[in-house]
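A quick aside before the break. I want you to see a complete sequence-to-structure record at least once, exactly as it would be stored in a machine-readable document. Don't worry about memorizing anything.
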Amino acid sequence: MTTVFEDAAAAFPTMLASSASDRASWLRAIADTLDAAVDELVALADEETHLGPVRLRGEVGRTTGQLRLFASAVEEGSYLEATIDHADAAAAPPRPDLRRMLRPLGPVAVYAASNFPFAFSVAGGDTASALAVGCPVIVKAHPGHPLLSRRTAQLVVAALANAGAPVGAFALVEGYEAGVALVQHPVITAASFTGSVRGGRALFDLAAARPDPIPFFGELGSINPVVVTKDADANRGAELAAGLAASFTLGAGQFCTKPGLVFVPRGSTLEQRVVEHLPAELPPLLNDAIASGFATGAEHLLALDGVEVLASGAATVAATDVAALSDDMLTEVFGPLTLLVRYDSQEELLDALGRLEGSLTATLHAGDSEPSADLVDVLAQKSGRVLFSGWPTGVAVTWSQHHGGPWPATTSQHTSVGVTAVRRFLRPIAFQDAPDAALPPALREANPLGIPRRVDGVLRV
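That is the input. The structure line, written in tokens, reads:
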């Protein structure tokens, strides 16, 4: 692994000096290469994950789409947050010439996920957002799809070489020991992770315990609460039952945004109808570890006092009363299971929501005439994305997307999906009274890059 780190360190100066158009061409080259190999990659992925060719082909499209989105974003340039305040001797106190922007951290570690073998894996959003801003990437492959990881890495390395990127811009490592060494190596300046609370917390602690602690951007556990009000259930209960069943069983319940906790009014139509929409069969879980974890988690939850099993089989629906809701019921069970929580009043609903830990998402289904400001406030406090009249599974890759949330959903305030995911791998730097020739192009007076900038408090595009 020493060569991998040495190569990444050697590549960084070249990547730091590269232009936005250079890096955009690298990303588009990777996207074109993956699209050209889609049949081969989907076959490999299906053999190792059993997610099915339709789902996997769509995921390749999502992956190459986000590579191209990041390419466009770096060319547009606003991600640099270039800000200029000209000197003003009349200000109190007198103001020097100050110019601020974001710059890449350096080589970063990316820990691939199991449940999205393309979009959150070797060439996924973390890799794309780091390469976009000029950070070399070392990916730790997930053991759930090793053949796919190796082949994807080969394609990425070849695409980068053909596009003129430096050797060391990208590399793949495998194995538990390599993963531990990766986050601890002094060359690594940041790390991103998608996976379990246990695994992410262990790596987070290692990152913090280094002689030079580094930022660790972990996406961990999330129960993604859903609230259904009385009016919503009365008017759309049957429709909501079908929507919930489709959402929590999507991908056999292995989405990080799966709705795992659903608050429903007592006697709800949703509770009465959801069972009829459950699938008779679901694909097997991704690997033995996930299957074992699901079995253990489901067995523990269903054995708790006050929990009633409404349906079991390919998918499981359980229910409890809000008065019986305990901390043991508020832990993510990764797989096709959801827990309904019956409530009688908004007061006890708000009280229960206030006890929840952070989640990636929170969803509200309410009637038009219902006051929901209090509900919206508490759901916004507990999550990174609040949905109205929809379901959380499915995360659009856009400029405005936020995929993160309070602990334990993530370890930071940043997103792992969308254009602002690049912010994880950048740090601010300010230049005071610098000669124009000494400034990075983004901050020079003539704006040679033609990027959006804030000058003396005014945004100029």
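Two observations worth writing down. The chain has a mean pLDDT of 96. Residues 2-220+410-460 form a domain with the Aldehyde Dehydrogenase; Chain A, domain 1 fold (CATH 3.40.605.10). We'll return to this after the break.
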